[in-house]
Structures are given as structure tokens and as C-alpha cells.
């Protein structure tokens, strides 16, 4: 580990980076006096969207209390309808991303989304009332006025919440690691020192490629997973700021897994100049003092994983019930035409590199376990019967994997799992392949709906899979499932 000083750029506050940085090798008794687990829990409570939910609910309740007297002065107001309306608002705002953690939130920037969703809510409410009773009929512009009032109230409440959070973050910033080398890493470090309202206090710089040599920084330079893990634990690190896209090698994949294991928020700062005509910036316009920034750990947060898991269980259970007759016909056809052994079991690698047993309808009988584990493609194998070929072309051989989804081995959408032999081989040959295991394996994925299935480019598959993980959302999962259903109807199996 080395510690060298460098001039901090363009800010009086930024020169604080030249002071001795907090040591990442704190004595054991010091670490014992401030347990990192407690720090993580306290921070997690501060970052929950409770305050924003309360601000939105307050705006909706106030509007619901005032608007009916203007919209329906002669009709009784059914107060019980407020509950489903608030639930609908919570679902819509979550879907729109209004409760995501941002480094630079802006209530004015959120106003168009608040207005659009409030308009949708109020027109749906008035339409439902008018369908039930003609006394609730109103002028077409009336719900828009109510929606505008609700959106303004919500905007004001959110502005107060954002202001309070910035003040709280400046008073109690969390330790952060800057991952990367070069000018961008120096500028990001100086920015975090100069602007504590982002809630980050740099305590170390990670050299992801373990290049060694002199690095122009006043922070301790961490090389290797052992040093990074020790720094994260001893300093209760809550944020990791990448200054270039990760996933370019096994070192970056190991870092991402390490940060996810310790509950750190992971951010990617884009410090490269935009080319002419090329849009840049993160979805939603989040930034770190002018640097476009986006979260890289969105798919690994407990709330996100819980939502994804809930959708998987519900859809897989329904699909198994609906597809039960098809499963029975497929199993009977395999048994009659190909003999005993309807279900084919094979070890695959899933989330965080953990192995599991994948289930499929048997379409061919391998000679031995070695062939099953190391043969890449059997699509053109002459031993495959007509039934096996039909199952593969229609992707019906994948239906038993719905049971893997229910068991928690897989997800409906995610990177396709591969056998251990090929995971080890591809991880050494193709950059970023190991980073695919940041998410649960899936029956289908972004790579598959773009035609990358069967004997296609592994490098392109890894690129699509990592892009899916970096930009994950439940809505993206829904879109991929819809496109998968369309491709299955075109008989595009592997």
C-alpha cells in the first residue's frame, strides 16, 4: 500500500484531500468500539423512502379532502376509496422510480412525473365514480385541476425532504472508496471532500487492476480483495464510486461481489467527454457535481430482490398451473419415444457462483457425465429424436425450469446459467463473463431476446447480460418476458 500526495483541483475545500486520510488499518480495539454492522443498519434506515412516501401520501390526502367539495358538492364522498387510491399511487410512483435513492434529487425535476401520475389517478377515480353513479359526473378539466394541486403539494413536500436529507448527509457522511486511477478519480475524490452533502467521505482509493506503482492521491491505495475487504469492514464503508465501467475483468467482478456482500451502494461516474451527437447521462438525470452518475447495485438491493422474487413466484406458480397439461403431454411424449428418464438434470452456476441442479425435458441421452458437462452444443446431434427436436425448437424443454424458479435456484429473467466447466473457461477468455453472476440466473434474458442463444458469441452474451444487470428494473423484466413469448411463438428455440 502506498500513500502519496497530489494537488487537489480548483477548490479550497478540495484541498482537504491533502490532509492525512483516515487509515484503513485501524487498530482492532477501535473497530470494536464502532461496529460496522450498526453503522450499516443506521444508514439503511436513513435511506429508506419513508419520508418521500409520507410526503406523497400527505399531498394525496389533502387533495382528497378538498377536491370532492368542488367536484361533487351534492354527492356524498366515499372516504373508503382513499385507501385504494393511495395504494395505486404508491405502485405508480415506485414503477416510475420516484423512490430511488439519488445523489442529486430535484423536486422540480420530479414535478412532470408527479403531475402525469396524479392526472392518471384522478381521471381513473372520476371515471370509476361516474360509472357507478351519474351524480359523480364532472367537467373534463376538473380532474386535471385536482391533479395539478396534488402534484404541487407533493413537489413542495419532496423539496423539504430532499433538503433535510442533504443537511443530514453533510452532518453524517458515510465512508466511501473511489475505484479507479487517473484524473477522473482525483476529481471525484476532491469533489466528495468539497461537497459533503452527497453523504460520502473518501477513505481510500482502489486500484482495480492491481497495477501498482505511484498513484497521485492523498488516500491510501488499496490493492487486492484482502485489503479492500479489510478497509470496508474497519471503516464501515457504505459507498463505492467507480470512475470507469466495471466488469472488464475478474478483478472488477470480485470487487462487485465484495461490495454487494457488505451492503455497499455502488455508483458509476462517467468522466469521459461526450462525442458530438451522442447522448450521455444517467436515466433520470442524476449527477455528482456535474459528473453523470448511475447506480450499479440496483438489482442487488434487498427491496429490489424481494420485488423480483415476488414476481417470479407469482408468475411461475401461475405458469405451472396453466401449463400443467402441456407438461404432461411433453413428459408422455418423451417417455414413449425416448424411453425412461423424462427429466434431464445438470449442474449449472447461478447467483454469486453458487451451483444448482437445472431441470429440463430430456431431448438426448449423453454418453456419460463427461460429455454432459463439457459438450457445448447438441443441436445437430443425429441421436436426437423427432420429439426432442420439436421440444428444443419450441423451447418446451425449458418448462421444468419453472420449478427451479419456485425453488429459488433461478429467476424468470436473468443471465442464462452455464455449466461449471464452461464458466471457468469463459471467465478466463471473455472479459466481464464472471460479472454475470451478480444476478440470479434466468430462464430467459436480454441476450436471448436479441437472438444470442445456442451457438452464438459468448462475448456478446456477456455484454448484454451485464447491461441488463446495470440497468435492471421490474419493468424491464416484464418487457423481456413479453418479447420472449413472442419469440417462442416464432419457434426460435436453441
Give a verbal description of the structure:
The protein has 494 residues and is an alpha/beta fold. Among the domains are: 173-297, Rossmann fold; 303-489, no CATH class. Helix content is 49%, strand content 10%. It has a 7-stranded mixed β-sheet. The protein has a two-stranded antiparallel sheet with strand order 8-9. A hairpin with a 5-residue loop joins strand 8 (343-349) and strand 9. Helix 8 packs parallel to helix 9 (250-261). The longest helix is centred in the first third of the chain and has 30 residues, at 142-171. It holds the Pfam family Bac_transf. It is a multi-pass membrane protein. Residues 1-44 are annotated as: Disordered. Residues 308-489 form the Bacterial sugar transferase domain.
Tally of contiguous helical segments: 18
* Share of residues in strands: 5-15%
Whole-angstrom Rg: 27 Å
Total count of strands: 11
Give the CA-CA distance, first to last residue.
49 Å
Spell the H/E element sequence: HHHHHHEHEEHEHEEEHHEEHHHEHEHHH
Can you give the mean pLDDT? 79
The side-by-side strand order for the widest beta sheet comes to 3-2-1-4-5-7-6
Low-confidence stretches: 1-46, 275-283
Kindly name the structural category: alpha/beta
Quaternary state of the chains? single chain
Percentage of residues in helical conformation: 40-55%
Amino acid at each position: 500500500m502506498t500513500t502519496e500526495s497530489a494537488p487537489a483541483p480548483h477548490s479550497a475545500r478540495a484541498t482537504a484531500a491533502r490532509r492525512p486520510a483516515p487509515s484503513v488499518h485501524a487498530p482492532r480495539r477501535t473497530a470494536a468500539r464502532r461496529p460496522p454492522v450498526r453503522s450499516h443498519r443506521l444508514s439503511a434506515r436513513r435511506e429508506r423512502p419513508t419520508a418521500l412516501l409520507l410526503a406523497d401520501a400527505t399531498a394525496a390526502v389533502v387533495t382528497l379532502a378538498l377536491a370532492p367539495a368542488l367536484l361533487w358538492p351534492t354527492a356524498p364522498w366515499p372516504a373508503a376509496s382513499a385507501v385504494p387510491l393511495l395504494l395505486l399511487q404508491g405502485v405508480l410512483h415506485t414503477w416510475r422510480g420516484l423512490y430511488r435513492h439519488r445523489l442529486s434529487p430535484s423536486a422540480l425535476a420530479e414535478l412532470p412525473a408527479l403531475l402525469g401520475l396524479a392526472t392518471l389517478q384522478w381521471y381513473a377515480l372520476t371515471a370509476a365514480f361516474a360509472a357507478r353513479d351519474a351524480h359523480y359526473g364532472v367537467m373534463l378539466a376538473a380532474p386535471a385541476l385536482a391533479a395539478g394541486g396534488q402534484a404541487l403539494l407533493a413537489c413542495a413536500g419532496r423539496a423539504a425532504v430532499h433538503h433535510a436529507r442533504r443537511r443530514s448527509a453533510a452532518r453524517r457522511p458515510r465512508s466511501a472508496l473511489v475505484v479507479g486511477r487517473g484524473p477522473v478519480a482525483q476529481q471525484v475524490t476532491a469533489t466528495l471532500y468539497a461537497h459533503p452533502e452527497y453523504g460520502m467521505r473518501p477513505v481510500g482509493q482502489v486500484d482495480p487492476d492491481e497495477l501498482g506503482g505511484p498513484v497521485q492521491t492523498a488516500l491510501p491505495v488499496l490493492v487486492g480483495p484482502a485489503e479492500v475487504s479489510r478497509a470496508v469492514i474497519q471503516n464501515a464503508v457504505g459507498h463505492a464510486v467507480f470512475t470507469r465501467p466495471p466488469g472488464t475483468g475478474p478483478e472488477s467482478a470480485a470487487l462487485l461481489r465484495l461490495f454487494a456482500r457488505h451492503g455497499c451502494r455502488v455508483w458509476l461516474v462517467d468522466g469521459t467527454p461526450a462525442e458530438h451527437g451522442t447522448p450521455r447521462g444517467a436515466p433520470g438525470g442524476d449527477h455528482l457535481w456535474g459528473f453523470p452518475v448511475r447506480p450499479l447495485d440496483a438489482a442487488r438491493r434487498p427491496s429490489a430482490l424481494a420485488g423480483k422474487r415476488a414476481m417470479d413466484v407469482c408468475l411461475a406458480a401461475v405458469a405451472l398451473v396453466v401449463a400443467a397439461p402441456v407438461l404432461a403431454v411433453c413428459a408422455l411424449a418423451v417417455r414413449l419415444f425416448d424411453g425412461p428418464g423424462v427429466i434431464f438434470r445438470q449442474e449449472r452456476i447461478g447467483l454469486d457462483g453458487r451451483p444448482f441442479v437445472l431441470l429440463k425435458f430430456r431431448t438426448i441421452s449423453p454418453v456419460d457425465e463427461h460429455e454432459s458437462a463439457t459438450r457445448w452444443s447438441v443441436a445437430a446431434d443425429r441421436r436426437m429424436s423427432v420429439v426432442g427436436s420439436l421440444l428444443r425448437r419450441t423451447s418446451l424443454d425449458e418448462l421444468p425450469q419453472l420449478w427451479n424458479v419456485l425453488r429459488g435456484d433461478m429467476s424468470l429473467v436473468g443471465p442464462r446459467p452455464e455449466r461449471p466447466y464452461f464458466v471457468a473457461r469463459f471467465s478466463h477468455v471473455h472479459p466481464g463473463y464472471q460479472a454475470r453472476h451478480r444476478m440470479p440466473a434466468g430462464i430467459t434474458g436480454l441476450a436471448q431476446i436479441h437472438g444470442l442463444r445456442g451457438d452464438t458469441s459468448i462475448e456478446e452474451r456477456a455484454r448484454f447480460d451485464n447491461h441488463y444487470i446495470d440497468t435492471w428494473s421490474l419493468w424491464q423484466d416484464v418487457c423481456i418476458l413479453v418479447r420472449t413469448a413472442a419469440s417462442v411463438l416464432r419457434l426460435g428455440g436453441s
